[in-house]
Amino acid sequence: MTFREVRTRFAPSPTGTIHLGSLRTALFAWLWARHCGGKFLLRIEDTDNKRFDPGSVASIVNCLQWLGLDWDEGPDIGGPFGPYTQSERGQIYRDHAEQLITEHKAYCCFCSRERLQQLRESQKARNEQPRYDGACRDLSAEEVATRRAAGESYTVRLRIPSLERITFKDVIRGDITVSTSTLQDPILLKSDGMAVYHLAAVVDDHLMQISHVLRGEEWIATGPYHVMLYEAFGWEFPVWVHLPVILNPDGKGKMSKRNTGKHLMPVNVEDFVAAGFLPDAMFNFLSLLGWTPNATKDMFSRQELIDRFELDQISPSAAKMPYEKLDWMNREYLRSLSPQTFRDVATPFLAQAFNRSETVVARMESLNYVLPELQTRVKTLGEVSDWLPWAFKSAAEIEYEPVEMLIGRKLDSTQSAKVLQTCLELLEEANPFEPEVLKDLFSKEAQALNLKLGSMLGPPRGAISGSKVSPPLFEMMAVLGKNECRERILRAHSVLTSKSVTMA
RNA sequence: GCCCCCAUCGUCUAGAGGACCAGGACUCAAGCCUUUCAAGCUUGCUACAGGGGUUCGAAUCCCCUUGGGGGCACCA
Q: Closest nucleotide to residue A44 (Cα to C1')?
């Protein structure tokens, strides 16, 4: 093979939101291009207008940009081999198909969809491999000419040579051999004149000088068509790299929404974005899904990943999506953020969760007391709000139900009420009203009362947060301020004493 | 049904004939610490799918079985 520049591409079809597996394909192609100092391009494969979804190009672009993948040529920025949208390249495909017809390597097929459908069904009924029977394969040139001239609808099919086997090379798996008994003359051009994927992809990959074709494993079976197409045109093969699919956690089928069980696990890239995964974490995680840089660590910077990436180290076997590992890695990235950055990235999520504007959330400066405490507690940005309902409620909105949340460990309700009373006094002493000061005061008091700090803090924790589990107490108090804390503890105290009376 | 691909701890994986009674990470479990929950620290559990070869020697090479996945459209 002659030396040439490494050029890879990501070629999604705009039929909806982009799947995590597709994003990984894009990432690997990008990684390889960047590793080699080559070019990465974006090409939109919209040859099927029936499945076209207008919003999806923008969505795909957003997802790529979110992950931090940039392209050197593409529909939005152009390039020397444009256009990069296949629906604008119809004539190119038609010309190439015509060339093959002239060279007797392809032919016009006038069979109707109905006939084809029936053929397939009868073959299946007989347990045969469904394939085209070649009815139009040897039509005379005259007949074809007259029928075309008459405006009869037809498709163009590639004439497949009758070999027994065809072999092509995949970087990850080595030689792949397919017997042609399973192959049929594939349609290249649909009756509407638009190319089918096989033709469009091969022609474009050649014209755009793609050196390495990275795509999903589901394309292995049709690999021979592409080989034969390259041969028919007399073009040099690209290097093929078929990436393994990502399976559902239970291993049953390709990672998908309907199969992920009770818990809603993200599948599409937009779902991961919405759940609050960080681009850096996803970049790191996805790079290591099916590839390892042969090291005993798994936290890598983008640059390290680019430097080390190698195609032949990619695993050939399909992996079950390891959601827990993604969670863990995302938390690692989350906790490595500066408090300010963490706050910035969390703000939109809080605004959405509590139905406030981002500006309002951004202005709640006292949140700074508690937000850093959440960096080790949360796996995604979407979970940050789970820890903060108390911060977005007024004292009156806090519900002490069940009332047990106001009872400290190893304390009864009378003692707990008493603790709340004491807290009220400590509140007034705290000056300034800061976590450190509060901690000092409460610790001393706990000692004086001969109580473990942990059990003494139970009642006020419940009173302040309305929950048994919360962020650290003193930080919460500092967020709310003295007056709000006093009000909550007062309320909690009265709830506790009245409930106690009823219980007694 | 036919064709193709794949197969190491529960999971993601390291391993390219001797350096492996199989290494790392996640998960899980226990202990310590502790302001609840986390985090942190320490320790621990668990794997070469099965059967045949090849070889002085196999997780590594070959074959079969089994299991899983993918494909068989005028979709990509």
A: B76
Q: Is the shortest CB-to-strand distance from A434 to strand B under 7 Å?
A: no
**Range of weakest confidence among A18-27, A226-235, A250-259, A456-465:** A250-259
Nearest to A201 by CA among A9, A351, A64: A9
Please state whether strand B lies within 7 Å of residue A173 at its CB atom.
Answer: yes
Number of H helices, E strands in chain A: 20, 11
pLDDT of residue A179: 79
DSSP states of A279-323 = HHHHHHHHHTSSB--SSS-----HHHHHHH--GGGB-SS-EE--H
Given a cut of 70, whether residue A66 has pLDDT beyond it is: yes
Instruction: Provide the CA A288 to C1' B14 distance, Å, integer.
Output: 13
Omega within 30 of 0 (cis) for the link into A54: no
Distance A253 CA to B67 C1' (A): 14
Residues in chain A: 504
Q: Is residue A8 classed as helix, strand or coil in its secondary structure?
A: strand
List C-alpha distances in Å: A260 to A266, A270, A277: 9, 16, 18
Give the distance, in angstroms, between residue A16 CA and nucleotide B41 C1'. 47
Contact flag, residue A316 CB and nucleic strand B, below 7 A: yes
- Pick out residues 378-407 of chain A having their CB under 7 A from any atom of nucleic acid strand B: none
Give me A504's structure tokens: 């007694």
- Are the C-beta atoms of A333 and A380 separated by less than 8 Å? no
For residue A51, give the nucleotide whose C1' atom is nearest its CA: B75
Strands A155-158 and A165-170: unpaired
The answer to whether some atom of strand B lies closer than 7 Å to the beta carbon of A67 is no
Please name the amino acid found at residue A271.
D
Distance CA A181, CA A490 (A): 82
CB A284 within 8 A of CB A31: no
pTM of structure? 0.94
Whole-number distance in Å between A18 CA and B3 C1': 29
Write down the pLDDT at residue A502. Answer: 52
- Among all strands, which nt has the closest C1' to A473 (CA)? B35
Is A407 within 8 Å of A414 (Cβ atoms)? no
Interhelix angle A20-36/A56-67, nearest 10 degrees: 50
Question: Å from A235 (CA) to B27 (C1')?
Answer: 49
The pLDDT value given to residue A121? 87
Catalogue the active-site residues of A: 257
Q: State the Cα–Cα distance between residues A80 and A61, nearest whole angstrom.
A: 20
Give, in degrees to the nearest 5, the angle at Cα A12 between A10 and A15: 170
User: In 3D, which of A383, A375, A287 has the Cα closest to residue A326?
Assistant: A287
Rounded distance between C-alpha atoms, residue A389 and residue A408, angstroms: 21
Instruction: Decide: CB of A25 under 7 A of nucleic strand B.
Output: no
- Can you read off the two tokens belonging to residue A290? 């099916």
